[in-house]
Design brief:
The complex is a heterodimer.
Chain A lengths: L4 H20 L10 H10 L1 H34 L2 H16 L2 H12 L4 H25 L4 H9 L4 H39 L7 H10 L3 H34 L2
Chain B lengths: L3 E12 L3 E12 L3 E5 L6 H9 L6 E5 L7 E4 L11 H11 L4 H14 L15 H13 L5 E5 L7 H18 L2 E6 L2 H7 L2 E6 L4 E7 L14 H21 L1
Parallel strand pairs in B: 3-7, 3-8, 5-6, 6-7
Antiparallel strand pairs in B: 1-2, 1-4, 8-9
Classes of the chains: A mainly alpha, B alpha/beta.
Chain lengths: ~250, ~250
């Protein structure tokens, strides 16, 4: 709790300065609305914003689930053969370093103009794929070398080695990968929503776009605020999940 | 002469790019023999151990070793326990890998943990064990299959002196129960004299034997063995051989 105090204090000071600046300098609200105006827009738009936040979150989580299943199984398959790993790794890196905005229009076309939500899930999943794939791949080869030798000594089958040694050894890497991927999935979903640029998905990014087009800057701020809160909440949720999982894994 | 459990005959091990690590080297282990390998770092002690474990093959020469799974066991320098498993599950691992059913494997693991004095820590995770306790669990895991050859690769190197000594006594007591042949690598001359029937000093570049000393006293050692003239004499002989080996290596 004590660690929450400094950021809250800093935020309060910044908001106070912001409020004072808006009033003293009489900045037009379409350029920079005051915190009070943003608060009012937040209250007025609460039901719509909550619904939009849920849409974005749901798409991001769907994407995370899809990325998790695909990345984990691909990492498992690839771990069985060095050749396969060498073949797949550069392609995975290429997918990772290509900006998602660049691929987005293509995916939007493939998903069909009537299904922007599908395109968004696919794009967010592409962004979330790499940290999970890379984490699980690394984790599967991170087993204690002496334990590996012990498995040699007792003539473990490849399946025994995978299930009893490599998969459990990969757990911390897998959890870390999912934490990073969760944050990226939100970013991916928002970026994809922007590019899809249609009201079909009705997520937070769409609310930001819509308010921006109408020059309702206070509503833009409100939507951005909700987005930031949601992403932060998700980050901390995964952080706690990670700590719990690691504590269980280590036995203390 | 009783039949030997395992042997290395004129073995040589070359590592690509690093030249010869070991050999020519001979070692014959009778049933129940305890042999200590002492020598400077890089003298091929661990390589000899890996040959006996079948974890490595010689470039030349013959390795004769126990063929059955579970007849040879290894204890590494660190306890090498899986952090996600309880002590009992760690100890049961060799049995589980051999297809023993879970119930029996656990019963035998609990028994093996009892034999090393860890009956109260059966369900503890490795992180909850002290260094000495973790090493004991590692020893229990090695013994759970009833091996005929036990290989210890500097097993007590990371422990404090008191824990080392009590573990050495534990190993000898366990040895007395089932009498497996033991080969252990150590840097500690006194530990070697205290524990072994035979102490083999090795020299490096490449690893070869630089002398063998037979310690003629009952195992487990009689009370006060560390203060007898015989103990000190053997320790001095071996220290002398070791000093020569070090000079040759330098």
């Amino acid at each position: 709790m004590r660690s929450l105090l400094p950021p809250i204090a800093l935020l309060a000071v910044a908001v106070a300065i912001w409020q004072a600046a808006c009033q003293i300098l009489t900045i037009p609200p379409y350029l920079l609305p005051s915190p009070l105006q943003v608060g009012a827009a937040l209250l007025a738009g609460a039901p719509i914003l909550a619904q939009a936040a849920w849409r974005t979150l749901a798409m991001a989580l769907e994407a995370l689930l899809a990325a998790s299943l695909f990345a984990t199984s691909l990492a498992l398959v690839v771990s069985l053969s060095r050749k396969l790993a060498q073949a797949v790794r550069p392609l995975a890196v290429a997918l990772q370093v290509t900006p998602v905005v660049a691929i987005a229009p293509l995916v939007v076309i493939w998903a069909g103009v009537d299904h922007p939500d599908r395109a968004i899930v696919v794009l967010a999943a592409i962004v979330a794929f790499f940290p999970i794939f890379s984490g699980v791949s690394r984790g599967l080869s991170a087993a204690d070398p002496d334990l590996e030798r012990l498995f040699d000594l007792y003539e473990a089958t490849p399946l025994q080695r995978l299930v009893r040694l490599r998969l459990p050894s990969a757990v911390p890497f897998l959890v870390e990968g999912h934490k990073v991927a969760a944050g990226l999935a939100i970013i991916g979903a928002v970026v994809a929503e922007f590019v899809a640029g249609s009201g079909g998905a009705q997520g937070l990014a769409w609310r930001i776009l819509e308010a921006g087009n109408r020059l309702q800057t206070d509503r833009m701020f409100a939507a951005i605020l909700v987005l930031a809160l949601m992403a932060t909440g998700l980050h901390f949720a995964f952080q706690i999940l990670e700590e719990r999982a690691i504590r269980w894994w280590r036995g203390r | 002469m009783p039949e030997s459990v395992a042997s290395l005959a004129a073995v040589e091990v070359d590592y690509p790019g690093r030249g010869r690590a070991l050999g020519p080297f001979d070692l014959t282990l009778g049933a129940g023999d305890i042999v200590a390998l002492v020598g400077p770092s890089g003298c091929g002690k661990s390589t000899a151990l890996r040959l006996l474990a079948g974890l490595e093959s010689p470039t030349r020469g013959t390795v004769r070793r126990l063929a059955e799974r579970g007849e040879t066991a290894v204890v590494f320098q660190s306890p090498t326990l899986a952090p996600w498993l309880s002590a009992a599950s760690n100890v049961a691992l060799p049995l589980a890998l051999a297809g023993t059913n879970a119930k029996e494997a656990r019963a035998r693991a609990v028994e093996a943990l009892g034999a090393v004095g860890l009956a109260a820590s059966v369900d503890a995770r490795p992180a909850q064990l002290s260094g000495g306790m973790a090493m004991r669990a590692s020893l229990a895991r090695a013994l759970v299959t009833g091996p005929k050859l036990l290989l210890l690769d500097e097993p007590f190197a990371a422990l404090d002196e008191i824990t080392r000594r009590s573990l050495a006594d534990d190993v000898l007591a366990l040895w007395a129960a089932t009498r497996p042949a033991i080969v252990f690598v150590t840097h500690n001359v006194e530990e070697a004299v205290y524990m072994a029937h035979r102490v083999l000093v090795m020299t490096s570049g490449p690893g070869r034997s630089a002398g063998e000393t037979v310690i003629d006293a009952a195992i487990p050692r009689p009370e006060g063995f560390r203060t007898t003239a015989r103990f000190r004499e053997a320790a001095e002989t071996i220290s002398g051989q070791l000093a020569n080996a070090m000079r040759a290596a330098a």
